[in-house]
Structure formats: structure tokens, C-alpha cells
Task: structure prediction
Amino acid sequence: MHGVECIPMPPAGLFETDDSTPQDAPTSFVRVAVERSLDLSDGLTYAGPESNQPLAVGQRVTVPLGRGDAAAHGFVVAVGGPELLDGFDPNKVKRVRSASSTRLPEPLVELARWMSTYYCCPLGMVLATMVPAAVKASIGRRTITKLEPVPDPPADFDPGTPTARAAWDAIRQIPAGDFPIAAKDLAHRVGATNAGPINKLVKLGALREVTVETVRAPEAFWSESGAALAAPPELTPDQHAAVEGITRTLGTFAPHLLRGVTGSGKTEVYLRLIERVVELDKSAIVLVPEIALTPQTAERFLARFEHLGVAVLHSGLTGATRNKQWAAAASGAAKVVVGARSAVFAPVPDLGLIVVDEEHDQSYKQDQLPRYHARDVAVVRASIEHVPVVLGSATPSMESWHNAQTDRYTLWHLPARVAGLRMPAVEIVDMRTERKKRREQHGDPRTLESIGPTLASAIEQTLTAGGQAILLLNRRGFASYVACPDSNCGWVLGCDSCDTRMVVHRAQARRAYVRCHHCLAEQLLPKTCPTCGKKVIELGSGTQRAEQEIERRFGTTLGLIEGETFARVDSDTMRRASDYFDLLARFGRGELKLLVGTQMLAKGLDYPNVRLVGVLNADTSIGVPDFRACERTFQLVTQVAGRAGRGRDPGRVIVQTMSPDEPAIRLAAQHDFETFAKRELATRHASRLPPRWRMARVIVRDRDHDAADEHARGIAQAIRAAADEAVVVQGPAPCPIARVAEHFRFAIELFAPNPKSIQRALAAPRTAGLLKADARTAIDVDPVAVL
Ligand code: ADP
Ligand code: ZN
Ligand code: ZN
Result:
């Protein structure tokens, strides 16, 4: 499907054409996918630009669009002759206005086509996503003029003056690969005292000017320590087997799953593989979840490959730096690209390997158009470019584990920690018994405390012995909701605009307030129940309350003072990436003895002095109405536990829970991924859920309840009409959170035993214009959250 942008016939007399030079009909044409919501799988046809500059697939161009010929950006997706016209009059086809130097390599254009079909997103919008905004806006980019000698100058060429002659002789000694060189640098290099001799050589035609595009930006590297270039350790036999096995597949498409317990040296496996890849003069892309949260991992790549050029792409970069890093990847100057989700689109010219670290991480899924999953896109890109892809995790996603179990992926296993380190011992403590104990000690229930006696004494022991501790509480704010203490009344403070509870926040110098975590609405914390007038209670502890409790209980005994000797880590305190880097540096130096925070702390931290990890409440994600709730709980407990025992001390992990028999918690404590996965996959399969069954979701939202319902019904009908018998279509039904920001939300869910059936069921209504991703409608293929 494609369209033709044609020129509307100009009114007679408006066009002054010079008859003496008849306009030749254009002979070269391109198809352009414009960065708009136009859902044409093959773009619009345009004639080449007036300048006759040849265009290439992947190039970003400006074209006239629509009646008013407004300038629109787009990407060339096909180049050809009149066959692209489909019989349309070549004289009436509009011309490309201009072409930029930004160009995506062809395999990325192919990848974009796949994404456009698979994720139901207009092709131009997918292509636009592949290029960072800073690159599109040319932030920091400028062209400069440099010099190079003309090829094959005449042997008897005589520059005339002795200084020019000396300069010329010196220039002939410079290796060809060093050119072009800026005039000033060239003068300096040939020992000239001023630019005179160089200018003369330019005038005589012996040197010629070339324009070079550069990006000026500060370096992207945050590492002040320079991350000492540690000598690579000797591989363990398991690491060695994985490196050798995966190396054998270089040059072919091969997906690998590297499952290694926390601290088993997965990163070292990636590093060795990348060494092999750069030896072949190819590039590697390494995806890490939210790089701002994993500075330690990124630093290790920088330290090992600094000499080869590492481009780092993360959200904390300034526009100019981002642009520079992208240019370094595109030119092949950086052999290794490390970045978050969007780095899967790094425009490296000669890809050799893709690594997806912590492949189970939710941040790989983009929650806006195009709703792609970077891990899955990485696998498709690897197949397009015929390279291996390595997915690594201590807690693989059920999707990847299923693929490994069914031999679609090759499985490599690192079952033990390196250097003889043991897995930490994990104790599950039942918070109901803990509270009883505390009552016996103090005579009152102290039900609002988040730290039970077992964990409290472990904190004391650890810190007194000079160790450090990490406490996880995956809930921001002070309390998760406000309610009436009278169960007959039952009042709970909800958000006016959403079907959610308001979360209590307490900031210093501010009266306590409540905030909706969905629409961000805020109001002051009410003191009494509006229905019966009783004094409200604040239930469900968040990180702010835990922080207060720590200072109250351990401030004098252990000297724990917030901001000085311990810190809270969540997205409220860590506003910028640098806040987190600074904090981790202080933790690394031992200035901070304890960190308490959300799942940010579960990601990739490797500090040998962390001897205690406490999970304050393992149940935060268990009750969520999402079929991945157990998987998430298992991952979170396993990952955070993995931060302990990375030094000589074996490390202790204490998991507080109200449901100690919950298999996700019990099996995580036993480090038993396989049993967990086996059970979980069986349950999913029996309920016809992913990974064996594939899923897509269409969410319709509208301020008007009935309009949302009706629109959703129309879409559901079109999908049902197009679906084959393998597809189960459910809904429309109100979403678990039925209203967000004053919009009612309805979901249609599609399930099928194969992705093709889902694709077909969505494709037909899409082509017919009945299903369109827009402000009212979200199409989510392979959703990771179903609220
Ligand atoms: P993972 O990514 O599996 O959690 P890491 O790659 O972070 O594990 O490795 C944990 C620690 O062990 C790191 O400090 C790393 O430098 C070190 N390490 C990795 N491989 C080896 C090895 N073969 N011998 C000794 N130490 C190693
Ligand atoms: Zn709200
Ligand atoms: Zn009440």
C-alpha cells in the first residue's frame, strides 16, 4: 500500500516556466515514509530533488505534503525509476525538497518495516523513533572545511617559493589516511610558521578543500575514576563454554539465552564476545536497562574498550552529546555502543553482535507509539543482519525461557558465582509473627513499622561489623493510601480523575499531601473522614515512611542520619542520572552505610561490602491484577538478593512477607529459577496466556464513558470479523484501572497460539481504517503491563 503525492494543477498563468529550456520529466523517484500518522506501508512517491542529488534508502528528507505543501520530514524507503509511479503522470509528482545527511543503514529500514507491521505503527513514525531527536535537530552539528592533497599531482609540480616547496614535500610524507586535515593543523604539522604556504598550495590547486561534518559536544562519559583498566580475569569453565559456543555462531543469526545466577560473571562473557567481534572489525551493541540506573555496568564496558571507542546512549545526555555519540556509532568510529532501549537502533555500519543484558527488564518495552520491546526487536535485527544475539539474565523472562526450552534459543548456563563466592542465604520471615514479637517487646502492636525484629537486629549486626546494607521497598511515597479507621464506614481516599487511591507524600517544609501516581493530581492530606468524621489513618508503607523509621530507630544507636550516613533512593529523590551516580559513588566509598529504596536498587549493583539485603515487603507486586505478578515478584526478590554476598562475607538476605508460602517468594529464596519457571509456564499455558499463547491488547480511551464503550465495540467487531478461529477475542471490558486522568478505558484482548493469527486479526481492520493508533486508541502487541 502506498500513495502518490502529486502536484495539484496550478491555476493558469501562475507558473512562469521558461519555454526556452523545456523541463525534463523527472526520471528518478523515491518512496518516502513521512513522520506522520499516515499508515501507508510503502510510503508516498516523490520525484528526486531539483538538484538531482542522488538519494539513498534510509536517508532523511524534507518533502511537500498535502494541499498546502507543508514541509514534512520523512525517510526514503525505496529508490527507483518510473516503476514507482504505478502509471501516475511523472510530471505531476511532487519533488523531494531537500535531503539531510542523516541516514539510517538499510537493515534498519527493513527492521522498521517489520516493526510497522508487527506493532501496528505507521512506518514513518517507526523510522522517526529510530533517530534521536537531537540528531534530527542537528544539535551541536556544524560543517568545517579541511584540506587534502589532490590525487596524483603532476610529478614536476613546483610550488614556486622555498617555504611552499618545503611544506609540499612534508605533506607528501603524511600518510593518506590522516587526511583531510584542517588548514591550521596542517601548517603546524609541516612545521610552517604561518598559514601562508598552505594557502599558496590551495591556490595552486595542489590541496583541495573538503567539508566535513562534526558534532561538538562534551564527552559523554561520567566516569571520573576512569574505571581502572583491570586485567581481565581468567574465565571459569562455564564462562569459557559460553564464550566459545557463542563465538562459533558469529556471522550467522543465532539467538542465545545466557542464564547465570547473580554474580556469575555474565558481563565478563559479553566482554569476551565483544573482543572477538571487534577483532573481526565489526561493531557490537549492548543494551542495558535504563543505563542511568546501571552506571556500574556501563563503566565496565568503557574501561575495557575505551581504546576502541565506546558510544554511550542514555537519557541523561545533552542533545549535543547524544548527537555526537550517534555520529560515532554511524561512522563506525565507535566499535561498541552501550545504551538503553533505543540503542537497539544504533546505526552501526557493520554489526557483529547484539547483547541484551537483564533481558527480563520491563524498561525494554516502550509504552508509547511504537510500543516495541527492544529485546524482541534485537532478535529481529540480529536475524536481518545475520548476527548472533545474546540475551542474559539471572531471571529470564518466561518468553525467553520458553524459547530456550523449545530450542528456538540456545541455552548457556552459569550455575555458580565466580571466584568461589557462594549465593547468599535467604531467610523468609513472616511479618505476622514479627509483629507479634514486637508487640510482646513493646506492649503495643506497632503495626505501621516496616522493619521487624529479625531484620532490625540483622541491620544492627551488619553495620556494627562494618558492613553495608540495602533495603528494598518497592513503593514510593509515605503511605500507599488513606482510609477511615471504621470498617463499617469503609471510606478510602481516591483520585477524582482516576480509579486509583491517592498516595501520601510527606516532604520536609511542606504539609503532608496526597498525590495520584497516575495523573499526578495533588491535594492536602485530609485529617478526618469526610463521611463519618473520624480521624483518618495512613496505611501501607512507602519509602518515605521507611526512611523516617530508620532514622527514628537507628539514628542514635547506629548513627544513621538521612543524607549523611544513609540515603533513600527512588525516583522522587533521584531526579537526574547524576544524582544516582553521585550517590553510588558515596556508597562505594563507604560514606553511606545503608540504602533504602525502590527497585532501582535491584539493578546490577556490585559492591563487595554489601553483607545484608532486606526486602521490607515482598508482597507489593503479588496482589497486582496482572498475570505477570508472580514473575515480577520472583525477579525482584532474586535480583535484590543478588546484591548481597559479593565479597568474602557470604551475605545475608531477609525477606519480610505476609505470604511466606507464596511459591514466587519461597522459590526465589531457594534460588530455584527452574522450578519456578516450570510451575509458572504450566499455569500460563493452562490459562492460555503468554508466552505459549500470544497476546495483543487494544485500549480505547475517551472522556465520555459511552463514547469509549461504543468505539471499543466497533473495533472489537472489526477484529472478530477478521480473526481466524485460532484467535480468542475478549471484550471490550473496562480496564483494571477503568479511569485514568478523566478518561474511561476499555480493553479488547486478543489471544492466539501463534503470532501470525494475531497479526492477521489486526491487519485487516487496520487496512480498512477501522483500527488506527491515535490519541484515543492504543494498540499494544505483546503487552508487558495489563492494568
Ligand atoms: P553478573 O553480571 O552475572 O551478575 P558480573 O559479571 O557482574 O556478574 O560478575 C561479578 C563479579 O565477578 C565482577 O566483579 C566481575 O569482575 C567478577 N568476575 C567475572 N568473571 C570472573 C572470573 N572468571 N574470575 C574472577 N572474577 C570474575
Ligand atoms: Zn489520578
Ligand atoms: Zn469514615
The longest strand covers residues 728-740.
